Amino acid sequence: MEIAWLFPLGIGVGAFGTLVGAGGGFVLVPVLLFLYPEMKASTVTSISLLVVTANAASGSIAYGLQRRIDVRSGILFACATLPGAIAGSLIVGSIPRRQFDLIFAFVLGGVGIWLILWRPINAIRMPPQGWWVVHRTVKDHRGDTYSYSYRAWLGMLLSLFVGFFSSLLGVGGGFIQVPLMTAVLHFPVHVATATSQFVLGFMALEGSSVHIASGDIGWDENLAKAGVLAVGAIIGAQAGARISRHLPPGVITRILAVTLVIVAARLGFTAL
Questions:
Q1: In which element (H, E) is residue 150 found?
Q2: Which residues of 24-47 are buried (b: 16+ CB within 10 A; e: fewer)?
Q3: Which residues lie across from 139 on neighbouring strands?
Q4: Per-residue tens of pLDDT for the chain, all 272 residues
Q5: Are 135 and 187 in contact (CB under 8 A)?
Q6: Domain-located, residue 180
Q7: Which of 74, 87, 111, 198 has the smallest count of CB within 10 Å of its CB?
Q8: 126 within some domain
Q9: Within a domain: 125
């Protein structure tokens, strides 16, 4: 009977997560916490990261065909997430379930409120100056060209932070990375969502590997749940990537912000 609702849940998580470039874990984890109140936090994050890995891989293929991924920057950020992803996966097992729920709600709500209050600067920006500044140009399959510059060392530092929280919370980290890439590194939104999805695949795989090695998930019913959700997420990710092509950047950001606040409020209320 679980397959009857886990599979469509995976499709929804995959579609929405790919649409906003966040992997879908920030939606899946609260749902799992609500449906399985007896499940350990480490097991919830293990299931979520396995699903995010499948979702991100599928979404990356779709975005890759659209040529919207900044591959060079994505590989740089993925390498920087490795230490943080390992640390987060090891620490989560020592956090009690209720405290985990509150931490998760606080992080989601904080990012959501910040996105609602933040207003993009429409004035022409001068390219950043200083040490290790990267200049990138991405031309997608429709001929749209995106040119931007960012400080590579700052992008790697932020990725280290994102890697830690993504594995700690089991969410993939895209809901943090996309806002940071657009607001701090000044990536175009469409490039940020596609590149974030690419990075998430590596990030979630790193965290999942640590959880499997630690025994947080094994050959049991929890792995079966993750498998059903992952198959749905692979299908949903293709739909999310297609839908994103037709939405303005501001709409994608607002959808992400409102969803984060709603999920945080619901999870925080349950925990308290």
A1: strand 145-151
A2: bbbbbbbbbbeeeeebbbbbbbbb
A3: 145
A4: 666 788 999 898 888 877 776 667 777 888 888 888 888 877 888 888 888 888 888 888 888 999 999 999 999 999 998 888 888 878 877 888 788 878 878 888 887 888 788 665 554 556 666 778 999 999 988 888 999 999 999 999 999 988 888 777 766 667 778 888 988 898 988 899 899 889 988 888 877 787 778 776 767 788 888 889 999 989 988 888 888 777 776 777 777 788 778 878 877 887 77
A5: no
A6: yes
A7: 87
A8: no
A9: no
Domain of residue 21 covers 2-120+131-271
Q: What is the pTM of this model?
A: 0.76
Buried b (16+ CB within 10 A) or exposed e, 117-156: eeeeeeeeeeebeeeeebeeebebeeeeebebbbbbebbe
- In degrees, to the nearest 5, what angle opens at C-alpha 205 toward C-alphas 199 and 206? 90
CA distances 30 to 44, 64, 101, 136, Å, are 9, 29, 8, 36
Indicate the pairing of strand 145-151 with strand 133-139. Answer: antiparallel
The residue among 90, 104, 107, 20 whose CA lies nearest residue 56 is 20
Alpha carbon distance 216, 42 (integer Å): 6
Domain count, the chain: 1
Q: Cα angle at 98 between 97 and 102, to 5 degrees?
A: 115
Q: Which amino acid, 129?
A: Q
Rounded Cα distance between 23 and 125, Å, is: 30
